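Sanity check. The docking grid for cytidine-5'-monophosphate depends on where the pocket ends up, so I'm generating a full predicted complex first rather than guessing from homology. Inputs follow.
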Amino acid sequence: MSASRSILLIIGGGIAAYKCLELIRRLKDRGISSRCILTKAGAEFVTPLAVSSLAGERCFTDLFSLTDEADIGHIALSRSTDLLVVAPATADLIAKMATGLANDLASTALLATDKRVLIAPAMNPRMWQHPATRRNMAQLEKDGILVVGPNSGAMAERGESGPGRMAEPAEILAAIELALAGEATTQQRAIGFLGRLPGGAGSPQGPLAGRHVLVTSGPTHEAIDPVRYIANRSSGKQGHAIAAAAAAAGARVTLVSGPVAVPDPPGVETVHVESAREMLAAVEAALPADIAIFAAAVADWRVADAAPEKMKKDGSGLPPLALIENPDILATVAHRPSGRPSLVVGFAAETQNVVAFAQAKLAKKGCDLIVANDVGGTGVMGGDANTVHLVTREGVESWPTLAKQEVAGRLIARVSEIIDASKARA
Ligand code: C5P
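Predicted complex below; grid placement will be based on this.
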């Protein structure tokens, strides 16, 4: 990558604006320079001085500033860059973009640009879920705007939580790197599609156009009684990112998700389930599929006889919990005598001998590819990064530690290549 990559960062008015200071610093570390526009509302949260000090050049604030216009007009500002990034993208900025309003420097630059635009939405969950914002987001995705986040979690407002937290600087940085990567190769194309480039779900343009991709994600909950259950630490971030990447690559995607806090990916048909048996039923109902990717952390066991009423402490000691094995969804689908997807991908979360165990699992489960990850250290389950090895019968491919979104984009790119190669052989 050349050191001359540059972005135009538009900082909107939200509490998350402070994260942009960290983003500018991280971009600089990666050799990406930022020229910044601070909206009037954005300037309520961070100062032009802080932004310009970090960016190393003046920060633009006003469309009608004669000096700004004399130095560099808004048209040139919006085009002398490789990518426009809006962070935080407030409900107001998103609405302006969706309708093509241009009444200040930020919205004018967004309308005048001929470059790609990446937005990092940030707002109150109710605003994010409001039908007006849903409509505006659907329009922006149709227009080929790239999107990163929002994440779910606690809001700055007391007692509020849900989807609407701006993506973290590391996630925005990863999305910027993807957007700047271009589309020269199949892999880069698919990575680009991750950001919902023109096309999107079911698009005739993407490398997976015309394919049905089935993805499982998240944990399963196995009932002990009506209020207690057995679970694991899976967040669904990796599986959901894979479903989003497949949709962005043009596939029709069915996501079968266990209970997770991450939002349903846009453009994906999401089926919500609780237990392993429900997940298997939903997977079988969604078949046939061309590609099946089993990223869910399915509970291996369930309680043999879940109690119909809440179990009570009655002084007679610990209640016995007899466990029985759950159906193996991956193995069931991979071993189907008919209607097996052309490509079946499994995951292997291991704490030791990662590759050797994955190779054994590939044979035992009957799948075509195993994505093996080391969950021995802290932070993979529920975290934003992943270190994986791709294990096939032909060999092992080890990837560096990447953001889960990037793992998803690369995996979808590899899956597209494998499917194309098998079509060429057939
Ligand atoms: O055997 P193990 O749980 O390590 O295998 C992991 C892989 O198998 C993952 O792809 C997971 O989604 C899948 N799996 C499944 N059904 C199960 C257990 C695991 O689909 N009951």
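Relevant for the grid: Confidence is low (pLDDT under 50) at residues 183-203.
Also worth noting: Residues 216, 276, 294, 296, 298, 300, 326, 328-330, 346-348 surround cytidine-5'-monophosphate (CB under 6 Å).
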